[in-house]
Design a protein that fits this description.
The protein is of the alpha+beta class. Helix content is 44%, strand content 15%. It starts with 5 loop residues before the first strand and ends in a 9-residue tail after the last strand.
Length: 875
């Protein structure tokens, strides 16, 4: 019997590749001594030889190429073509002989279940539940062979083709194994979930049960009993006994449904002791498999049999109560302003510890440099209910020293650019380069953590150099220029002051043009362009990160695209969404960038080169027009202040875009520590390291360096993630304790400001006029990068704040509204570059505006008019 065609259910050499997801799960269960019915695997090698012997692969791929999940008729057509080919095919003699012998070895001609087991099913991310075929009560050699071949054909049903396409699974990569098991003559059957699939509670199990075979539950033919169980002790905490009107039973040639006997219809299928016994088996399986499981079971003569077990996918995280109190870490007051404007969401535990402490240490270094007192603590970062706040803890003496130091401001402004370019940037680059040249896998954990601190210290020094110089100088230069122009120079009919500082090169604009260039390159390759346009965005991004080219795309063009795409992400994908390094970067989740590339590819977005050239020409024409009528001191004053503003305009954007330069390397180092913790069984995924505290990471790294074991931290991680989600539903107060009026210094990332301290009632929100124009359109409210795929061309972008990483969305936006920001903030500048209206600093837009609601943005008046939610735009 060729071992590559058939394997025992207990064969420890069987794995996902050879026996599929269902088969691999059964191997683990059998090895652990769990009550699994006997049988054997028909491996993927048997399937592949069947396909090869009948020359099916080319026909399969040709049939599925035009299949589109959005058009069910195309799925049906593909399935019909492939099904006909499978029906005409014959099983190779060697394969048939191997299966026949394995069946004969079960003894006699027992009734068996023949179940499909694909290589892309029963995975933690995707279960493929219900997508493959199962045949019950199959008896006799010929029937088993037919059942196996029908399972193989079931890999290509319309629903299976559509499911794979929706989830980005390559059709060419899937193979099918088959599990053949003795059939349990079940008196009852059902499903055990080792976590509550509705609430997500991991401490509960849920049992569903019906009389007869389990197909009545799986097929939705009967309403089963449902029993909720406290998993730790098997205690019943809820029971619903259903009226089970039908049951599935064996028939001569398979199964059939029949009415449930009257005395069983309303009777509990399992008593409390049986439920507790089943849950004990479930706990054992969950521990064996490392997570919550969906387990099919059957019961005959009082004994349970485990038929299959798969990870529970799409399990909701357990909800935790939203905090009602805001406990203060001191007297305060505490403000949501300054640096916190770039920390809009609750922060990760690692940032709340390591990040906060390193930032505060950087502030101490800045104050020691500025006034000689590191304890002055001009802006001190605190964490309250997982949100970042700042406090100003200055003694009278510190205030006096700051006032005396203001005489140095002139020198600070004059040297701002040089200090940024010649000190902060080189130091930051050097710290990152030292670790980019290291083999992270060979570095001790303690060294990696020290490297993380080194890189983040350099990032904070870069940030504080901006706070103490370039950004303040940029904001001041533009404010002085605007005042001089508006009060002394501008005449009726002259352009607004912003028109004279637009059209310059900056990092976000370079990123946009590079993406446009990539789109043009793709557009020049018809087959590749068609594929990129038609493929759903997230599966397309996953394919670009893979090893193989899609079968319908030219392989050389695809490899070239992969190189160009990766080069783009490495160059521009570190522009941060937030200062919290625990949150993904654009390069980590690049689907929004790809969505913008597709927008450029469609031809609907304006050419950024032409837009910038137009702005540049208008700027120069406006400057020359003004200079033509000026002379003497007014001309000299105008050229001086305009020169300041024009010099700082691109530098401000470049410096903000550079804040995240070291984040990719820092995150790689932390995820390397996370990978080691996963191997040690402490956490589930490398990214879970960001949900640990600095002390926990430090202690775990030291233990691993000593080759010691680690305690499990997965439960703590899940709890913190649940708390984070609950905190995100909060609207953090702008001040703690509450104050009617407040002022707080800004980080001055382009003049950030907010109306958060002002009550915004009525149907008109007041903000800051940031980019001229007026537009009425539906709103797209984005809480963060996780919502970027909701953005569509022609919608008004509504967000708490935008950073350079948000720039790709502006190509699609009809207008922009933010909670935080001012006329010199990033969003304002980019909106003016794109020529779309913008209102910044409303304070409440993300809470008052609903997705899809029609709003009117007036970028001249600084207002946002809210239309009732049921009102649509007239055609």
């Amino acid at each position: 019997m060729p071992l590559d065609y058939v394997l025992s259910l207990a064969d420890l050499g069987a794995n996902l590749t050879t026996v599929g997801g269902k088969g691999a799960s059964l191997v683990r269960l059998v090895a652990a001594g769990l009550p699994v019915p006997g049988g054997f695997h028909v491996t993927t090698a048997a399937y592949q030889d069947f396909v090869d012997a009948n020359f099916l692969q080319a026909d399969i791929l040709a049939a599925v190429a035009p299949a589109d999940p959005a058009q069910p008729v195309t799925l049906d057509a593909a399935a019909s073509k492939i099904g006909e080919r499978f029906r005409q095919a014959t099983m190779p003699p060697a394969v048939a002989s191997a299966i026949a012998r394995a069946y004969a070895n079960l003894g006699g001609e027992p009734a068996v279940a023949v179940r499909s087991s694909a290589t892309a099913e029963d995975l933690p991310e995707l279960s493929f539940a219900g997508q493959q075929e199962t045949y019950l009560n199959i008896r006799g050699q010929e029937a088993v062979l037919k059942g196996v071949q029908k399972c193989w054909a079931g890999l290509w049903t319309a629903r299976a083709i559509g499911y794979r396409a929706q989830h980005g699974i390559e059709h060419a990569a899937v193979r099918l194994a088959v599990v053949v098991q003795r059939l349990v003559d079940a008196e009852s059957a059902g499903v055990l979930f080792t976590a509550n699939p509705v609430t997500g509670q991991r401490d509960q199990a849920v049992v569903t049960a019906a009389w007869g075979l389990g197909e009545s539950i799986v097929g939705g033919l009967v309403t089963p009993d449902v029993v909720n169980v406290q998993k730790a002790d098997g205690r019943i905490i809820g029971r619903e006994t259903a009226d089970k009107q039908v049951m599935t039973v064996h028939s001569e040639d398979g199964t059939r449904e029949q009415p449930t006997p009257d005395h069983l219809r309303r009777a509990p299928v399992l008593d409390d002791d049986a439920v507790a016994e089943l849950v004990r088996l479930g706990r054992q399986i969950e521990q064996l498999c490392g997570g919550p499981m969906d387990i099919e079971w059957a019961r005959a003569q009082g004994k349970f049999a485990i038929l299959q077990a798969r990870p529970i996918t799409a399990l909701p995280e357990p909800e935790v109560p939203i905090p009602a109190e805001w406990p203060l870490p001191g007297k305060g007051p505490f403000f949501r302003g300054s640096i916190v404007d770039f920390l809009p969401d609750p922060v990760s535990p690692l940032f709340a510890t390591l990040g906060r402490d390193r930032y505060n240490a950087g502030e101490e270094r800045l104050m020691e440099w500025f006034i000689g007192d590191k304890n002055a603590r001009m802006t001190w970062l605190d964490i309250i209910n997982v949100y970042a706040y700042i406090s100003m803890r200055l003694s009278l003496g510190a205030w006096l020293r700051i006032l005396l130091a203001l005489t140095r401001l002139s020198r600070l402004i004059r040297t701002a650019t040089a200090r940024w370019r010649e000190e902060a940037v080189p130091q930051y680059r050097s710290a990152v380069a030292r670790w980019q040249s290291r083999d992270l896998s060979e570095s001790p954990g303690a060294d990696l953590l020290d490297g993380v601190r080194e890189i983040y210290d350099a990032a904070i020094n870069h940030l504080t150099s901006l706070q103490s110089g370039l950004l303040g100088a940029a904001g001041g230069a533009e404010a002085i220029y605007t005042t001089v122009y508006d009060r002394l120079i501008r005449r009726p009919g002259d352009p607004a002051s912003v028109a004279l500082v637009l059209g310059y090169e900056s990092a976000p604009i370079q990123a946009e043009r590079a993406l446009y260039d990539l789109a043009r390159w793709v557009g020049g390759r018809a087959g590749l362009a068609d594929y990129v346009q038609s493929r759903p965005t997230r599966p397309l991004v996953a394919e670009l990160a893979g090893q193989e080219a899609p079968p319908i795309v030219d392989a050389a063009a695809w490899r070239d695209l992969q190189v160009r795409w990766q080069t783009y992400l490495e160059r521009y994908g570190a522009m941060i969404y937030t200062l919290d390094f625990g949150q993904p970067l654009p390069m980590d989740e690049p689907a929004p960038i790809m969505q913008t590339l597709k927008h450029y590819l469609s031809g609907a977005a304006p050419n950024p080169y032409e837009r910038q050239k137009t702005l540049e020409e208008r700027r120069e024409a406006s400057v020359q027009s003004v200079l033509g009528r000026l002379g003497g001191l007014r001309r000299k004053l105008f050229t001086t202040v305009l020169g300041w503003a024009q010099a700082f305009a691109p530098l401000r954007e470049d410096s903000i875009a550079f804040i995240g330069f070291g984040y990719p390397q820092l995150r790689r180092m932390l995820k390397e520590l996370g990978r080691r913790m996963v191997q040690a069984g402490a956490i589930a995924r490398p990214d879970d390291v960001f949900w640990l505290t600095e002390t926990e990471v430090e202690e775990a790294s030291a233990a691993l360096d000593r080759s010691e074991g680690l305690a499990a931290m997965a439960t703590s991680v899940r709890q913190r993630q649940a708390e984070w989600r609950a905190q995100k539903r909060l609207s953090p107060p702008p001040t703690l304790p509450a104050m009617k009026r407040f002022f707080v210094g800004s980080l001055n990332m382009g003049g950030l400001s907010t109306a958060r301290g002002r009550i915004q009632a009525g149907d008109t929100l007041k903000g800051i006029a940031a980019s001229p124009g007026r537009v009425t359109a539906p709103a797209c409210v984005l809480r963060g990068p996780e919502d970027f795929d909701q953005m569509r061309a022609g919608l008004i972008l509504v967000a708490e704040i935008t950073t350079p990483a948000w720039t790709p969305l502006f190509a699609m936006a009809a207008g922009v509204v933010t909670d935080v920001g001012g006329p010199q903030s990033h969003g304002s500048i980019v909106a003016r570059e794109y020529g779309i209206p913008a209102v910044m600093g409303t304070g409440v837009a993300t809470r008052r505006v609903h997705g899809g609601q029609v709003i009117t943005v007036d970028g001249d008046a600084g207002t946002v008019k809210l239309t009732p939610p049921d009102v649509a735009i007239a055609p």
